[in-house]
Amino acid sequence: MTSTFPRLMLEHAAQRPGAPALRVKEYGIWKSTTWAELAVMVRAMACGLAAAGVRRGDHVVVVGENRPRLYASMLAAQALGAVPVPLYQDAASAEFVFPINNADVAYAIVEDQEQVDKLLEIRDQCPGLARLWYDDPRGLRKYDETGLASLDVLLETGATADRADPGRFDEQVKLTQPDDVAAMFFTSGTTGNPKGVVHTHATLLDRAAAGARFDKLSESEEVLAYLPPAWIGQNIFSYAQWLACGYIVNCPESAATVTIDLKEIGPTYYFAPPRVFEGLLTSVMIRMEDAGAIKKWLFGHFMALARRVGPALMDGKPVGAVDRLHYALGNVVIYGPLRNTLGFSRVRVAYTAGEAIGPDLFSFYRSIGINLKQLYGSTETAVFVCLQPDHEAKADTVGVPIEGVELRVSESGEILVKSPGLLKEYYKNPVATAEVLTPDGWYHTGDAGFLDAGGHLKIIDRAKDVGRLQGGASDGAMFAPKYVENKLKFYPHIKEAVAFGDRREKVCAFVNIDFDAVGNWAEKRNLPYAGYADLAAKPEVLELVRECVEKVNADLASDRMLAGSQITRFLVLHKELDADDGEMTRTRKVKRGYISEKYQVLVDALYGGKAEQFIETAVKFEDGRSGSVSATLTIVDAKTFPTLQRAA
Length: 648
Description:
Helix content: 25-40%
CATH architecture of the domain at 5-272: 3-Layer(aba) Sandwich
CATH topology of the domain at 5-272: Rossmann fold
Strand order of the largest sheet: 4-3-5-6-7
Number of helices: 21
CATH superfamily of the domain at 5-272: ANL, N-terminal domain
Distance between the termini: 44 Å
Largest sheet: 5 strands, parallel
Structural class: alpha/beta
CATH class of the domain at 5-272: Alpha Beta
C-alpha cells in the first residue's frame, strides 16, 4: 500500500466524516469519536508536539491501555515524521529504562497517574526524557514536575499553533513517505535486552492490507481493542488494519470489564493469543461445575456431538442429515447461548497467534460454530506471513503463505521468510540485524517446521528449543517442549507448564495450577485452602494434575515422533510464574532458560529421584514490595504409555 497512516486517516475523514472511528467506554457508557473529530484531534496534537520541539525522526514513547487519545497521539507523531514507540503498560518502571535510553527518547505520552509515576521514578536514569503528557488527569492535580502537562494543554497549545501557521500540518503529512519509519516495537527480550524492531509505513500497511484482502474485511467490521498496544499483534489488528479498512475500534473501560464489553460490542473480527481463549474456556468449565444435573448432561451430550461433527460443518465437509439436524438442535440449546456468553455471537473471523494453541482448545471453538483460525508471523514480519483460509483451518498447522510471501525451509529445518512486511532493522543493532536478515532478503524466523502436502505450514517449536532425549529407552527421540506444554494447558486446571528434557533421558515438568479453576473445584469438594501455595500443595490437587498429565501422556503415545516426550515426573510450583519476577515476558511467554536456572534445585530434584524438595523464592508484590515465599514441594511420578502407531 503506497500510503501512510496519517494520509489514510485524513482520507477516511474526508470520505465519511460522520462515521465512528473509535469508541471508548467511560463510566459504563460508550462514547464515539468520528473520523472528522479524530482528524481535528490529530491535527491539534501534532501541532502541539511540533511546538514542544518534536521533529522528524524523533522517538515518542506511548504507554497505556487502548485509548482514543493515545491512538491519536501515535497518528500525530507519525504526521510529523516522528516515530511512536509503544511500551507495555504493565511493565515495571525499571523495564522502561533500556528502551527509553536505547531510542534516545525525549517525549512520552501516557495514559494516567500510574504511568506518570513510573516515568518520574526513572527520570534520573533517563536524562534525555524532557517532556511528559498524560491523558487521564485523576490524581495528578497537585503534581508539579518540570515538563509534565496534560493532553488537554497539548491540544490547546496545538490549536493555537495551527491557527498561527495553518499550512504546517498538511505540509508535514505530505513530507512523510511510505518508506519512512512509522513505528518501533521492542521485542519481549526472552534472552537478553529487548531489541527495537523498526517498521516503515509501507511494511506495516502492506501486511495489513494483504490480511484484509485475505479475509475480505471491510469498513463495517467491529473490533475490540483490549490487548497491549505495545504488542504488534494488537497494533496490526487495531491500528494498521483499522486505518487500512476504516472499521470501528472499540476500547474497553478497563481490563476488568473486557468480558462484559466483549458481549456488548459483539465484534465481527476478533484476535487473541491462546491464553485468552484458554481463559474463556476455563470460565465456561467453572460455570458448568456450578450447573445443575440436567444442564450438565445437556452440555456433555451436545459437546460430544460438537467435537464429532462441528469442525466438519465449519470446514464445509459433508455431514449426515441426522447429525446435521442434531447439531442444529444443539445450536439452539447449547452452542448459540454459549457463543453469546463468550461474546462471539457476531464473530465472522477470529484469529489466534503469538504462540501455538493446543489442538483440543482450537477444535473446541470451531466445534461450537466460531470461525477460529490460526496465523503465523512475528514482530519482525509485521505479523501476517501465513493465514488459514476459511474451510481449511487445521489444528496442527498455521495456514498458507499469503500474498507477497515466500517461504523456504533450511537444511536445519528452520523456516525462512521473504515478504514486503519484513523489518527495516533492529535499532542500533546491526549485528543482530545481520543475524536475521540475509543479504538477499530472507528473514531467519528461528522456528522449526515444514510445509505439508497441502501447502500449509506446520510449526514444531522454536528451532533453538527443539531438542533430543539422550539415554534410556527414548534415546534420540525428538523433544518439543512447547508442544508438550500446550497439551497440558488445554486442561482448565493447568494455567502454565514448563517442560524439560533436552539431552536428558526423560521429560519432567513444572506446572502452575489455574487458581480460579482449581479453587472452584476445591470448594465443590469442601477442600479448605489458605491461598495459592496451600492449594497447590494439597494431595487432592496433585492427584488432579497427575490425571491431566497422564491424559497428555496417553495422547503423546499415539504420536510416533513425540511419544518419547511423555512426562515421567512433575511438580506443582508454589507460586505463579510472573513477568514481574522475570519468569515470563509481558506477552506471557515462559522464559524457559531463566526458569531452569532460577529453579535449578527443583530441576535437580526431579531428575535426582527425590520425593520432595524445599524451595525459597524471592518475589515482587503488586505494590512494589519485595519478599519471599517458601515451600516443600512434592514430586509426583506419572504413568507413561507404550508408543502406539497412529492410524493413517
